[in-house]
Amino acid sequence: MRLYFYRGKSPNFGDELNHYLLPKVFPGLFNDDPSAMMLGIGSVLFDHHPAGVVKVVFGSGYGGYTAPPVLDETWDIFCVRGDFTARTLGLDPSYSVGDSGILIYDYRNPTRTKQHKFSFIPHWESLERGCWKEACRLANVHFIDPTAPVPEVLHAIEASEVVLTEAMHGAIVADALRVPWVPILPFSKAHHVKWNDWASALDVDLRPRPIRASSVQEQLVRWGRSGRRLDGVTGLRRRFLQTLDRRMTERAAESLAMLTNVTPSLSSDESIERAVGRLNERACAILKKYAPHIQR
């Protein structure tokens, strides 16, 4: 079967984690066979997947970006990301197992040397519109680029004592790697529901913290407007906006520094081990059904 995952104009750590992790979980399963596809890490339970293709669901979530999919005989659901996804799709609560990215737990390096007291992972859209690398420098917080190659991001997370993250999979992976994390409220409200969906499967009391915008474009997004309207601005207006951007970056850095004083979150050992165990059980069931010759 094919491994499906979302890929936008920029690589995104959470989505690219599919290509890095799931071939380890399902060795030898993926090929170019168009008759079946796996929906794994991410909010990829859309309403527009091909009608005639078998859709194997393993820890995916519904993000509200489209109407919920209408489930028929082509949907083979083994588990979903959390309670919200299960309710929305009309599934029994037992299907709420956890985001499949949690299985990075099985590949962690507990002896990794800690190099950074605090690290920050912005959402890739915030990285595109904001000035977070500079804000991190000003706040003395290590910057982790969510568009960097997956091994690089994993190494940086494990090398951190605490991760501040606006990227949901920054929190998911940090938690699975047993690195305490501070959730930062995404600027785009469209992303909020996903966090609670994932957290419900791990019994995490999610308390995301707000943070200041690091640029004019980010602030426009917060107000529900497009930052693209700044394209092509020249002259005095451009210089004014550049000055405003610098001030906003400084204030974002101050906000980021304040978040280093927040008590971080971490799911209990019992919760993470329960989720990992259930995900591995579902993975074995998928292999037994679709590739019985493959041993795991």
UniProtKB/TrEMBL annotation:
Name the record gives this protein: Polysaccharide pyruvyl transferase family protein
Superkingdom, taxonomy of origin: Bacteria
Domain spans labelled Polysaccharide pyruvyl transferase: 73-184
Alphabetized Pfam families for the sequence: PS_pyruv_trans
This protein's UniProt keywords: Transferase
Organism field: Ramlibacter monticola
GO molecular function: transferase activity
